[in-house]
Write a structure and sequence with these properties.
The chain is of the alpha/beta class and 451 residues long. The protein has 11 helices and 13 strands.
Length: 451
């Protein structure tokens, strides 16, 4: 049995944050923007047909177009960019050679889709050219970091999708390799994830990219499991799996007793797909508009600040006045965390008491060292049996050692309903025959061409 005190609102609207209590609405947990950069190798090998007759570069453009359309439909605030490296021409804010920003980080629209479609009709070699040979890969990561920094926002996912069929882009140049590794560490510090899509059956991630990639938060094995991609179908399926960022809802301490805490993360195992909220656009420029609320004094007409505004609640025939900060303190009755209050058998939780889908609690070794061992010992003791995490042949985790956080109703939410035990009435034969005639009279002949 645990008691939770936390707020999981990820929203730029401060007013909405004040109204949020408890765990919050699941929809707000996934309202974070997704900034995604497609980094595509544009050197000559990417334009060489594979064994199945497909061009890797063309396949990447097709997948990028599909993902752009999907982003427009699902998340209107997400931003996508497309960057080529290994080109003769250059176009980037850092003025690095061999890197061409084809589309800057921005909200995708119809024009960006047309540009992607038109790229297939352009002679890429003549327009952008190829710069074969070793690549200054730290420059590629640097350009992406600059693009992210020019789009500051609160709590945004920043991801790089890297497409290449060269498992050692820096070649034998140790200086380029060390600089790339150093820049990759900088990106990890900035919470920028790098996802690799290796094109080709002979691609070896251990040659170079193993230290560049980011181990996702849901993979606590400490290793990247990457499948080689050979066909367009495999590439589309691999990108589709990572279309939406999978990450924990937040970090929260599990308080066992006074002075004893474990680091844990919460994960959402199921999320209802909801229709996105409408986006207001300017009638003249068709650009998104942002609504801003200003409070004006009714007597003087001057703008009011937060310090000038008070809130009141009528109690005992008089008004009790609160400030904005006092209201925040009232709503927060403890520090964020999950407090362990006791233990009860599994049979104590009835199925009808589950009011919503549960969260999954998993140890977080980064927050508090030793949390994984202590959490596993607690789980093993609770189950009275050893439950180890297992892996499938492809290296994916099958049984993660964690706990389900089940939301129980409050006492006043449960009521005893007395259901009348009357004998159900059965329709007579004549009533059934009459009902069939009514149904037949409502039917008509259907032809698909009539619609």
């Amino acid at each position: 049995i645990t008691r939770g005190v936390m707020s999981w609102r990820h929203d730029d609207n401060e007013e909405d944050q004040e109204e949020e209590e408890g765990f919050g609405d699941d929809a707000s947990l996934f309202s974070r923007k997704d900034f995604l950069i497609f980094v595509v190798d544009a050197r000559t090998p990417m334009f060489t047909p594979t064994a199945c007759g497909e061009l890797p570069f063309a396949n990447v453009l097709l997948v990028a177009r599909k993902l752009t359309i999907a982003k427009i439909r699902a998340q209107e605030s997400d931003q996508i960019a497309i960057v080529f490296f290994g080109t003769r021409e250059k176009s980037n804010l850092n003025d690095f050679p061999g890197i061409y920003v084809f589309q800057d980080l921005d909200v995708p629209d119809a024009e960006s889709i047309k540009q992607l479609e038109g790229l297939g009709d352009v002679d890429f070699s003549a327009r952008y050219g190829h710069a074969d040979g070793p690549v200054a890969f730290h420059h590629v990561l640097w350009v992406c970091s600059t693009m992210f920094s020019n789009r500051p926002t609160k709590d945004a996912h920043q991801r790089i999708f890297l497409f290449t069929n060269d498992d050692n882009p820096t070649g034998d140049d140790r200086s380029l390799r060390s600089q790339a590794l150093a820049k990759a560490e900088d990106l990890k510090t900035l919470d920028i994830d790098v996802d690799l899509y290796p094109l080709g059956s002979t691609f070896n991630t251990h040659t170079f990219f193993e230290d560049i990639l980011t181990v996702s938060e849901e993979d606590d094995t400490g290793r990247n499991v990457i499948q080689r991609i050979e066909t367009l179908e495999e590439l589309a399926e691999s990108v589709r799996r990572k279309e939406f960022k999978k990450r924990s809802l937040g970090k929260v301490p599990l308080i066992m007793a006074e002075g004893i805490e474990l680091g844990t993360r919460l994960y959402n195992t199921l999320q209802e797909a909801k229709k996105p909220s409408p986006l207001w656009l300017d009638a003249k420029t068709n650009q998104p508009v942002k609504c801003k609320t200003l409070w004006v004094c009714a007597d003087t007409g001057t703008l009011l600040s937060d310090a000038q505004m008070k809130y009141w609640y009528e109690y005992g025939g008089s008004r009790v006045v609160f400030t904005k900060d006092e209201l925040k303190d009232i709503k927060k009755f403890g520090s964020p965390g999950i407090q362990l209050m006791g233990f009860k058998p599994m049979s104590a939780v009835k199925r009808f008491q589950v009011t919503r889908h549960p969260y999954f609690l998993y140890p977080d070794e980064e927050a508090i060292e030793g949390s994984t061992v202590a959490f596993h010992a607690l789980l093993k003791k609770m189950l009275e049996m050893k439950k180890e995490e297992t892996f499938a042949p492809d290296g994916m985790q099958e049984t993660p050692p964690g706990m389900n956080i089940v939301f129980l109703p409050f006492a006043d939410d449960i009521r005893n309903v007395k259901v009348p035990t009357e004998t159900p009435r059965v329709a007579e034969r004549g009533q059934i025959v009459a009902a069939k005639k009514v149904i037949r009279s409502l039917q008509s002949e259907f032809q698909h061409g009539s619609i």
